[in-house]
Amino acid sequence: MKLAFSTLGVPGLPLTDVLGLATTHGYHGVELRAHPEEPVHPGLGPDERAAAAAEFRAAGVEPLGVAGYARVAAPGDDEPVLAEIRGLLDLARDLGAPYVRVFPGGGTGQSAEETDATAARRLGAAAEYAAERGVSILLETHDSHRTGADAMRVLGPVGHLRAGALWDVMHTWLGGEQPSETYAALSPHLGYVQVKDIASAEDTTPLALGAGVLPLTEVVDVLSRHGWDGWLCWEYEKRWYEAAAALPELLGQGREHLARLLTDAA
To answer: The pTM is what?
Structure first.
């Protein structure tokens, strides 16, 4: 498996410095938080996109994905959501990233059937656009669709090769789903896996990998047992928890912890 980290853990850090951290600490890729606060986002022009792609190539680091904030199950008209996703897909194509992340984002006033149908309709439409650009859209296990079983209520009806899943291990754990259950649900559609660690269900402040309660050992064991060889991406939510330790000082230990889990699983 290849290892990456998300720029959510280093808010606003210039891309050159992000790539320097990746090479220094032995990460193969970087997931880019696609928000205007960050140096790489859908508002960049062609020259800026080309320069960012060139920086990745020069560093020998892969752009794993563009982590957007489009909410495919949200109430309202389809077109604004689809336009947002198209912008993310164009950015991913220009950077050479294989994936775009979207959230479910179902509203509390909607029935489960309504949110599922809305999300499936939008993902199906966006997947056609994604296919033309050689990029895949990944629905993250998050918010209204926290577990693998929840995500499959959407992805099953879509049935498109360019519409897949992003497994966020914190949310499936919070949803009460075992790693073996999540893998069984998502494996036909699994793009990559976001790893992290927290103190408890009540305290989700990010911790160093291995310092909390999330079942990282079990997740890696399940993936390894099934011969899955995709990406593990450390999503350290520093942007939302300013008091958390700085990610750069944890990256080396985090890579070593994941490498140890992979070795033990093998």
So the answer is: 0.97
